């Protein structure tokens, strides 16, 4: 399946399906008149599993593969610097192309490398995680600073996204869970029938049938597109994509990065936002049903008692999406219709207190 992403700065295709990676050479040959060299940026885990496949898929070109550590540690200034050094040593130039091959970490890092190397060279995303249906589309690329995630980055759109479903089978269960949380989010904020389809059809993440996987990732990408195409630089509705993330990010940071996967923390954040939506927006919605489904899929659904509420509140206020320390929360008027709502500290603390107590 092909999805076209149209933003103010660029229009590009996303190919989703089993075996789409085989079309990579054909695409590059037709999209660029001359590509001097291709730099593949991937991580150790993905390289161990699939390096042969990606190099084979790029057989027409002279490739140089830069292998970075797996996970969030790839998004450091050190690793970024190593990638730039690697590119210079291998004499990449402005006619070169970067391929990011891996999850969101590799995509964010590699996209940032591409956006800054010689003031920007083209790149193509080849995502290998479920989460990357979110991160590979929309053009946000970044690395972290010790004092905050994604603090150094750019808006820089890829030339294309090749999302080959064959790479997803090897994902560990907790990584599937992390990515699937964003699929649920896309349903909740934009398409209630998609959300209920997920709810009724996806009862385990262990063996996801390829057609289901293809459908849900493609739909997730279309929904993300609908937000980013009208608001590339997040001045308005793109912020709705942060549903569940204000508290989710705070949990990730407060617990210590790595304790929770991103999506597992976002699930708690979404449950909290739904609870607030019930109170503030009169959302009518079967909470218990949702919780049971999420638990069946292996998610935690309660805010751990050891997390200190005032610390979480501080984190939410520091979030770079908060403006002047006020926390703009994304709530739902209905499944599929988000709204931004400014919360006072008191409302938030009180809400968190009740949520943590589990009442
Ligand atoms: P990741 O890239 O760290 O991948 C998770 C783990 O899975 C890693 O250990 C990786 O080596 C491994 N892995 C990847 N593909 C695999 C495969 N096919 N089989 C087995 N193992 C595999 O993380 P992620 O969860 O994909 O993405 C998280 C990152 O994405 C975060 O840094 C987050 O900030 C970023 N993100 C960016 C955006 C954006 O808009 N740019 C949006 C959401 C998230
Ligand atoms: Zn997210």
Automatic annotation (TrEMBL):
InterPro entries assigned: Dehydroquinate_synthase, DHQ_synth_AroB, DHQ_synth_fam, DHQS/DOIS_N, DHQS_C
Question: Keyword Nucleus: yes or no?
Answer: no
**Cofactor(s) for this UniProt protein:** NAD(+); Co(2+); Zn(2+)
Give the CC-aspect GO terms.
Answer: cytoplasm
Indicate the segments forming the 3-dehydroquinate synthase C-terminal domain, all copies: 179-322
Identify the keywords attached in UniProt to this record, alphabetized. Amino-acid biosynthesis, Aromatic amino acid biosynthesis, Cobalt, Cytoplasm, Lyase, Metal-binding, NAD, Nucleotide-binding, Zinc
Q: What is its EC number?
A: 4.2.3.4
Q: Catalytic activity, per the record?
A: 7-phospho-2-dehydro-3-deoxy-D-arabino-heptonate = 3-dehydroquinate + phosphate
User: Binding of NAD(+): at which residues?
Assistant: 70-75, 104-108, 128-129, 140, 149
Name any one GO molecular function: 3-dehydroquinate synthase activity
Q: Which GO terms describe its biological process?
A: amino acid biosynthetic process; aromatic amino acid family biosynthetic process; chorismate biosynthetic process
List the subcellular locations: Cytoplasm
Which parts of the sequence bind Zn(2+)?
A: 182, 245, 262
Known pathway: Metabolic intermediate biosynthesis; chorismate biosynthesis; chorismate from D-erythrose 4-phosphate and phosphoenolpyruvate: step 2/7
* Database matches in Pfam families: DHQ_synthase, DHQS_C
**Main location per UniProt?**
cytoplasm
> For the 3-dehydroquinate synthase N-terminal domain, which residue ranges apply?
66-176
Cofactor binding: number and manner:
Binds 1 divalent metal cation per subunit. Can use either Co(2+) or Zn(2+).
Q: Which domain of life is it from?
A: Bacteria
Q: Which HAMAP family match?
A: DHQ_synthase
Family assignment?
Belongs to the sugar phosphate cyclases superfamily. Dehydroquinate synthase family.
Q: What does this protein do?
A: Catalyzes the conversion of 3-deoxy-D-arabino-heptulosonate 7-phosphate (DAHP) to dehydroquinate (DHQ).
What is the official name of this protein in its record?
Answer: 3-dehydroquinate synthase
Q: Gene name?
A: aroB
């Amino acid at each position: 399946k092909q999805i076209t992403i149209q933003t103010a700065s660029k229009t590009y295709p996303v190919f989703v399906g089993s075996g789409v990676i085989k079309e990579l050479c054909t695409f590059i040959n037709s999209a660029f008149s001359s590509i001097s060299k291709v730099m593949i940026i991937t991580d150790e885990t993905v390289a161990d599993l699939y390096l042969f496949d990606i190099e084979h898929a790029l057989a027409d070109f002279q490739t140089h593969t830069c292998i970075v550590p797996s996970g969030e540690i790839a998004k450091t200034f050190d690793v970024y610097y190593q990638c730039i050094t690697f590119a210079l040593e291998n004499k990449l130039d402005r006619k070169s192309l970067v391929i990011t091959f891996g999850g969101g970490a590799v995509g964010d890092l590699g996209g940032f490398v591409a956006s800054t190397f010689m003031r920007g060279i083209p790149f193509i995303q080849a995502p290998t995680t479920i989460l990357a249906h979110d991160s590979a589309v929309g053009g946000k690329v970044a690395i972290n600073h010790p004092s905050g995630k994604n603090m150094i980055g750019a808006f820089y759109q890829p030339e294309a996204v090749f999302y080959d479903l064959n790479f997803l089978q090897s994902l560990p269960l907790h990584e599937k869970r992390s990515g699937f949380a964003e699929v649920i989010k896309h349903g909740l904020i934009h398409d209630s029938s998609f959300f209920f389809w997920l709810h009724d059809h996806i009862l385990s993440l262990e063996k996801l049938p390829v057609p289901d996987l293809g459908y849900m990732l493609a739909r997730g990408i279309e929904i993300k597109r609908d937000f980013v195409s009208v608001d590339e630089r997040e001045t308005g509705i793109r912020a709705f994509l942060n549903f569940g993330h204000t508290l989710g990010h705070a949990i990730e940071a407060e617990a210590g990065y790595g304790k929770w996967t991103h999506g597992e923390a976002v699930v708690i954040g979404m449950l909290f936002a739904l609870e607030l939506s019930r109170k503030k927006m009169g959302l009518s919605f079967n909470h218990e049903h949702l919780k049971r489904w999420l638990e069946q899929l292996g998610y935690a659904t309660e805010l751990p008692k050891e997390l200190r509420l005032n610390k979480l509140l501080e984190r939410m206020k520091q979030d770079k999406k908060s403006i002047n320390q006020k926390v703009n929360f994304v709530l739902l008027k209905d499944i599929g219709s988000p709204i931004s709502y400014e919360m006072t500290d008191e409302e938030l603390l009180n809400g968190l207190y009740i949520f943590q107590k589990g009442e």
